Amino acid sequence: MTNYARIRRSYTPGVGWLGVGFYVGECSLSSAPHSGILGFGNDGLFENNVFRDLAYEATDTGAWYSLYTHTHTERERERERERETHRQTDTLTHIHTHTHTHTQVLGA
Q1: Which residues have CB under 8 Å from 1's CB, separation 6+?
Q2: DSSP state of 2
């Protein structure tokens, strides 16, 4: 895509994204006053994109511009809580199994 954002000069990227799990690949973006790719979300994959002559009318941007969201951080915290719960459950199961086995051996 080339020579886009000719009327609305800023915040009109060649590729805009918002949400979860986007794939943007093999894009060639050039000759625009603002960003080539702009958006926010998480779990996206961006690969093999080419940027040329972008953001020449803006100072607080880049060819690829992403805003931060807390979704990924919150999901990672939830996963860690689940892992900790599983570790505690596994430890209690091990203690219970060991105690039960030990009791059987002593009672034999």
Answers
A1: 14, 15, 27, 28, 29, 30
A2: B
Report percent pLDDT > 70 for the chain: 71
Give the residue among 19, 16, 25 at the shortest CA–CA distance from 69.
19
Taking every pair of Cα atoms in the chain, the longest distance, rounded to a whole number of angstroms, is: 87
CA distance 36 to 29: 6
Q: What backbone phi and psi angles, to 5 degrees, belong to 87?
A: -60, -45
Measuring CA to CA, which residue among 72, 58, 5, 14 is closest to residue 39?
14
What would the pLDDT profile of 15-56 be if each residue is shown by its tens digit?
998 888 889 999 999 999 999 999 988 788 889 999 999 999
What is the distance between the alpha carbons of residues 95 and 24, in angstroms, rounded to a whole number? 49
Band (pLDDT 50/70/90 cuts) for residue 107 is very low
User: CA-CA distance, 70 to 72, in Å (whole number)?
Assistant: 6
